[in-house]
From TrEMBL:
Protein's recorded name: Ubiquinone/menaquinone biosynthesis C-methylase UbiE
Skewed-composition ranges (Pro residues): 156-168
Keyword Methyltransferase: yes
GO MF annotation terms: methyltransferase activity
Gene3D superfamilies: Vaccinia Virus protein VP39
Length: 287
C-alpha cells in the first residue's frame, strides 16, 4: 500500500453511477490488441481484479469461456451486471471481494487483468497470489492510460482547431482543492505522494517473466457536455461525492458555473488518451 494509507470501503463510494458517462474510454481496438498479445482463442477463463462497472471485462468476455469480475464496491458490481445484461454478455459473473481476498476459491485462470486498479492493492502479496492462480503460461495484464516514467498520465494533446474548448482541468482541480484541501484524498485517508508505480519490479519479484508492452494510440477527438465533465469529476477517487459531505451541492453548483464560464454552450472537446497494455507471463513449467 502507499506509505501511510490504508484502503477502506469508501474509496469510490457514490462514484459507480458516474463511471459510464464520465470516464473517457480506452483507446479503440484495445480488446483486439490484448487478445493478439496474449494469444486468446475463446478458451480459458478471465479474472478482472478491481473490475469496477465491467469496462474491460465486458469488452473481453467473448474471448473466454468464462469471465469473472471482482470488486469490493457492490454498487460498481451492480452497474457491471446491468451493463452485461444490456450488452447481452452471458458468460460473466461478479464477486464482491478485494484483491487481497484472492484466491477466494475462484480457481485457475488463463488471464488476470488489472485495469487502473493494481496501485490500490498490497502489490507484493497480490502478485504472488495471482502467480499461483494462473495456469502455466498464463498472463498478468496491467492496463491504464499511457503513463510517463514517473507514473503520471501523459497529458492529452489539445484538440486541433476544436469547435469547442478543452475542459478547464486545472481550474477544476483547483476548485476541488478549495473544497477538499491541498492533499489528495482517497477514501478516509490521504495520498500526499500519490499512488505507486514500477509494476515491473513487483512482478519480477513474484516470478513473472516475458514482459511485453503495447501502446494503442488514440487521438480521436470526442465532444463532451458539461454533464459528462461533472460525471468525470465524481467518478474519481479523489473527488468522489461522499468526500464533499454536506457541501456536495455547493461544489456541483460552483463546478457547473466554472464550466459555463469556460464554454457558454456547455460543450467541450477532448482527445482520447492512448492506452498502455503491459503483460507478463507465468513460466510454462510452473504449476
Amino acid at each position: 500500500m502507499p506509505d501511510g494509507w490504508q484502503w477502506d470501503s469508501t474509496l469510490f463510494q457514490g462514484s459507480a453511477a458516474f463511471y459510464e458517462r464520465g470516464r473517457l474510454p480506452y483507446a479503440p481496438g484495445f480488446a483486439e490488441t490484448l487478445a493478439t498479445a496474449v494469444g486468446l482463442d475463446g478458451r480459458g477463463r478471465l479474472l478482472d481484479v478491481g473490475c469496477g462497472p465491467g469496462t474491460v471485462l465486458l469488452a473481453m468476455a467473448r474471448c473466454f469461456t468464462e469471465a469473472v469480475g471482482i470488486d469490493p464496491d457492490e454498487d460498481m458490481l451492480a452497474e457491471a451486471e446491468r451493463q452485461a445484461k444490456r450488452r447481452g454478455v452471458t458468460n460473466a459473473r461478479w464477486v464482491t471481494a478485494r484483491a487481497e481476498d484472492l484466491p477466494a476459491g475462484l480457481g485457475e485462470f488463463r488471464v488476470v487483468v488489472f485495469a487502473n486498479s493494481f496501485h490500490w492493492t498490497d502489490r507484493d502479496r497480490v502478485a504472488a497470489t495471482v502467480f499461483e492462480m494462473l495456469e502455466p503460461g498464463g498472463a498478468f495484464v496491467h492496463m491504464s492510460d499511457l503513463k510517463d516514467q514517473s507514473g503520471e498520465s501523459v497529458p492529452q494533446p489539445q484538440p486541433p482547431s476544436p469547435s469547442h474548448p478543452a475542459p478547464p482541468n486545472a481550474e477544476i482541480r483547483e476548485l476541488a482543492r478549495r473544497y477538499l484541501g491541498p492533499v489528495r484524498r482517497a477514501g478516509q485517508g490521504t495520498l500526499p505522494n500519490g499512488t505507486q508505480n514500477r509494476e515491473d519490479l513487483v512482478l519480477a519479484k513474484a516470478g513473472f517473466e516475458a514482459f511485453e508492452r503495447h501502446v494503442i494510440p488514440a487521438g480521436q477527438v470526442v465532444e463532451r457536455s458539461a454533464d459528462d465533465i461533472v460525471a468525470w469529476v465524481f467518478s474519481l477517487s479523489h473527488s468522489a461525492p461522499h468526500l464533499f459531505e454536506d457541501r456536495l451541492a455547493d461544489f456541483e453548483r460552483d463546478l457547473r458555473a466554472l464550466l459555463q464560464e469556460a464554454s457558454p454552450d456547455n460543450r467541450f472537446a477532448e482527445c482520447l488518451p492512448a492506452t498502455e497494455i503491459m503483460t507478463w507471463r507465468k513460466p510454462q513449467g510452473e504449476r
